[in-house]
Amino acid sequence: TYFLYRLRARVYCEDFLFPKVCRTVADLWSIYSKPVPANSRELWTLFLQSCCIAAVIGGLFYNWMFASLEYSWHLSVAMAISFSLLLLLTLFLVHPARCVFSMIMPMLGTKQGRKLLLSTCTMIVVVNITPNIMSNIKTILQVIKCICKNTSESLLNSTSLLGTASWEFGDAIQENVNSINIGSPMNGHFWFSLLKNSSFTYQQMQLAGEKIGRDFLAVEVLVKDSVQVGNKLVAGFSMLYLCFESTWYLKNYLTNLRFDNFYITKKLELLAADRKAAHLLVGPSKNLIRPTGLKLSREEVMLCLVQAMLLTVALMLMLVVVAMDHFAFSVADTAVRKAAQFSVVPVTLGIKYRAKIGILPFLSKLLRLPSEELPLQDFERSYHYYLTFSSAHCSISPPTPPSPSVLLAVGLLFCILYTTVFLQTYARRLCRRIAGSFFESWEEKRALYLYKKLSRRHKEEQNHVRS
């Protein structure tokens, strides 16, 4: 039963569904490419086709302006609606405009189309990856700022240890001086000047950190704005050039019979068959190409390789930016984890003081006194302190990991770009087929011109052989 069901489904698709879909698509394209609709049904069909195309292109235009070029929401909506209405009227009323618009999509596979796609890819990188790099660099700077602040505070607080040590050491010296009982009493204390109020130091550190942050933010905004303006200009120029290139192709197609006229079309084959000259399409006519064939000439292959190499250079630059994003995240993540693991550093201040008193040798001989030195009170103490490098009170933003969706979008766009490099030749062939379907009478003239050219060449070759 299962195999019977599959067989029926296959027969239904091959004998009914697929042929009906092909006929429907062919009828819709015939109505769309006609200069003037034949009846009211074709008129309404053309209007609905124009409405659908205008709605889809308007939505894509809005997304391109708002998401990629980062225009405001109101401006993007207004421009998308205006563009859709203008496109609807143009497609519905102007037959050559429909041809030009239909050739814009194949033109995306040409050099200018790649520039437009590359501009979109660059915009995605600038809008998503560059701020991520800046955010991770800010995190690194916050870690450095936190370490410097806590270290300076700890060092400033350690001065109290020096004050305590100096005072106790001064007490020990005073006791030794008093025990000698010679001369007037002396004050043996050391006076250690301490910075009791450290708010000024903290304020200066805060001002320095804020200045670095402002400078860093200014550089970030400048780079982002510059790249955005550049990409907007490139995108606008590329769109205008796509329209211009399509118009230029159609103009040359309708005014120059020799322009892009070296294809073996169905009209040319029928014309040669009617005049019993099918031999003209084989043999010496090696320069003729079938528009539906996949064969590329040697010149076309070399051109594709050169374009692929240039695109690879752009890909390498994008990969450098992506690598910088991963490197910045790795450094920021390591800095945050290591800063949290910083242990306090013990500092020990040791003071060892030993004093003796004795009579000068010549006095002891003169007065006949013993020359032994009498030891005084020794002083030996250790003072302990701990330097801290990090604190839980520091405001450190967590590092931002690279976005996989951005990398996927960039990779997909570059796959499309590499595909367009090798589809550039076929895109031009498709443009010619589109122009031929819109202007069938002119296509017959071009086929007749090519047939006469091949006939003349064949006669010249025969005369050359006879002579």
Structure report:
With 467 residues, this protein is mainly α. Helices cover 73% and strands 5% of the residues. The protein has twelve helices and four strands, in the order αααααααααββαββαα. The strands form two sheets. A two-stranded antiparallel sheet has the order 1-4. A two-stranded antiparallel sheet has the order 2-3. Helix 3 (73-93) packs across helix 4, helix 5 runs antiparallel to helix 7 (199-255) and helix 8 (266-274) packs across helix 12 (440-466). The longest helix has 57 residues, at 199-255. The protein starts with a helix and ends with a helix.
Query: What is the count of DSSP helices, taking H or I runs of 4+ residues?
Result: 12
* Rounded Rg: 43 Å
The class by helix and strand makeup works out as mainly alpha
Strand ordering within the main sheet: 1-4
In short:
By secondary structure, this protein is mainly α. Helix content is 73%, strand content 5%.
Question: What's the topology here?
Answer:
Elements: H1 2-33, H2 40-68, H3 73-93, H4 95-107, H5 111-157, H6 159-180, H7 199-255, H8 266-274, H9 298-341, E1 345-353, E2 356-357, H10 361-367, E3 374-375, E4 379-387, H11 404-438, H12 440-466
Antiparallel strand pairs: 1-4, 2-3
Helix pairs in contact: 2-3, 3-4, 4-7, 4-11, 5-7, 5-9, 5-11, 8-12, 9-11
Identify the notable features of this structure and list them briefly.
467 residues; mainly alpha; two-stranded antiparallel ribbon; 73% helix
